[in-house]
Amino acid sequence: MNDKIEGLLADGRALMASGRPRDAALVFERVLLLSPAEAAAREGLESARGASAEHDLRLEQRLNVAEDHIEQGALTEARALLDTVLRDGGDSHRAAALLDRLPIPRGWFALRRSDDDGALPAPPAGAPAGRSRLLLGAVCAALFLLLGGAVAVNWDGLLRQLAQAPMPQAASFARPAPPAEDQTIAAARRLLEDGDPARAVALLDSVHPQQPSYPFARQLRGQAERALRKPGTHR
C-alpha cells in the first residue's frame, strides 16, 4: 500500500509541475481515499485546489478580454484568445458562445478566387449587389436540373437494381491505419479498463481541441474522473 501511495503522490506532484492542478487534485483526493491521514496528500490537495482556482480565474479573464475585443471589432485577437481558452480547458460553453458571435468574413460565399494569403478579396467598387449570389443560384439550379434528368432517364434501371437481391462480397478493402489521436484514446481506454484512471486522464489531456477525436477524449476523460472518485479504485 505504501508503494502505491508514494506512486500516486509522485503522479500528483508531476501533474502540478506540468501545470495541470485540476488533474493533480483528483490524484491527491484518491490518495486521501486510500489513506485519510496522509499529510502530504492533504497539503498537495490544498495546493492543487488553489492553483486550479487561479488557473480558472486567468481563463475567465481571457474570456472577458475576448468579449471586449469582439465588441471593439478586434476579431483576430478575440479568436486567438478563445482558442487558448479552449486549449487550456476553460469554460467551453462560454467560449463557443463567443465564437458564434464572430461574423463570417465578407465575401465568404462569393464565387471569387482567394489571394495568396488565403483571404477573400473585397468586391470591386461599383459591382452590382447580389450578382455573386445570383450566379451561385443559377449554377445550383442547373446542377439540380441535370441531376433530375439523369435520374429520370435511368429510373427503370435503378428500380431493377433495387429489386435484385444483394450479391455477397468478400471482405476486400484493408482498413486504414488509425490516426495518432485514435491510438491515444485506445491506450487511455485500456488504462481505464486496467484500473488506472489517473494515467488515463493524463494521456487524454494530450489530445488537442483541433484533433477530430477531441470530443471522444473529453467523454472518456469524464469516465476516468468518475472512476478516480470511486473508493477502492486500484492503480
Give an overview in words.
The protein has 235 residues and is mainly α. It has a domain at 1-106: Alpha Horseshoe (Serine Threonine Protein Phosphatase 5, Tetratricopeptide repeat). It has helices spanning 2-17, 21-34, 39-72, 75-87, 92-100, 131-153, 155-163, 180-193, 197-204, 214-229. α1 packs antiparallel against α2 (21-34), α1 (2-17) packs parallel to α3 (39-72) and α2 runs antiparallel to α3 (39-72). It starts with a helix and ends in a 6-residue tail after the last helix. Residues 108-130 and 170-178 have low confidence and may be disordered.
Number of strands: 0
Backbone structural class: mainly alpha
Task: Compute the separation of the termini in Å.
Answer: 10 Å
Number of helices: 10
Mean pLDDT: 75
Give the DSSP E fraction (strand runs of 2 or more residues).
Answer: under 5%
The major pleated sheet works out as: none
Instruction: List the helices and strands in order.
Output: HHHHHHHHHH
Question: How would the global form be characterised?
Answer: flat
Provide the CATH architecture of the domain at 1-106: Alpha Horseshoe
CATH class membership of the domain at 1-106: Mainly Alpha
Helical fraction equals 55-70%
* CATH topology annotation of the domain at 1-106: Serine Threonine Protein Phosphatase 5, Tetratricopeptide repeat
Estimated radius of gyration: 27 Å
Poorly predicted parts: 108-130, 170-178
